[in-house]
Amino acid sequence: MYLLLGIGVVIAVAYFYREIVVKGKRCTSKVKLHGKTVIVTGSNTGIGKETAIDLAKRGARVILACRSRQRGEAALEDVKRESGSNQVVFMPLDLGSLKSVRSFAETFLKTESRLDLLINNAGIFMQGRTEDGLGMMFGVNHIGHFLLTNLLLDRLKACEPSRVVNLASMAHNFGKIDFDCLNKHKALGLGTSSMNVFQVYSDSKLCNVLFNHELAKRLKGTKVTCYSLHPGAINSELARNTSSILQLALKPFTIYFFKNTVQGAQTTLHCALQEGIEPLSGRYFSNCTVRELYEKAKDDAAAKKLWELSESLCGLS
Known about the structure:
Elements: H1 2-22, E1 37-41, H2 46-57, E2 61-66, H3 69-83, E3 88-92, H4 98-111, E4 117-120, H5 136-158, E5 162-167, H6 179-185, H7 194-218, E6 224-230, H8 244-257, H9 261-264, H10 266-273, E7 284-286, E8 289-291, H11 300-314
Parallel strand pairs: 1-2, 1-4, 2-3, 4-5, 5-6, 6-7
Antiparallel strand pairs: 7-8
């Protein structure tokens, strides 16, 4: 009897966790986007692709900004088919290359007259170096998006009210910014062990949140707003560059305890579309709800220092 009762409790808790925590809230905005232009980075797969499909369904002109031409063009056909829209365009963007980021921005500004929404969605979970000699996760997850946003800010201001959405992660809670390491090695950390890779990933996500914090301060007086967010634990391709052993170990958890990509896109869509959240510019969201941050994630001095260092590394200063 007690065994059956115990099993029943476990099943009930698991069901509650999956229904409330895993599935989470949904974006309820009914906003249409006809005449609006959106960029979604890393939109050839995962929550970026689902985000692009949703925005295209709402009538937006959607730019799929992806590194792989082959995967990007395949995603282009998928997004067009699933959204029923022909207002979807693929443009190559490698966030690990400052040259590619500049080329993308130059082409976009020449060929597109509007930018109403920039969704910095792409992310990577692996060590290594970018072609510019930056730590891979620092370069792709932070610096690439930092440069892209800055190069497109004037167009966002010209089309205001507009928004920037920065995908972070609750992993930022475990992050730290070692400015000495950044100055010496242009990386958030060195080493390739699993624990080290997770630490550097967490550090890069803290960079995303601090970037969003400082960006909001610099956008005061405009009608461009910005938001960072945790999409949830997602069953996506983020871990595709990890070891096969780790992927195998995670598989049972990803099936039952991780959100699918549609569920994982909901907080992104909330930040992109929800009416009335403009006064919350610079804030951090999870499960379609604004959340409080630890002090290190809203440290004015650290955010300013990171911004200035990023400017220097990008050649913007």
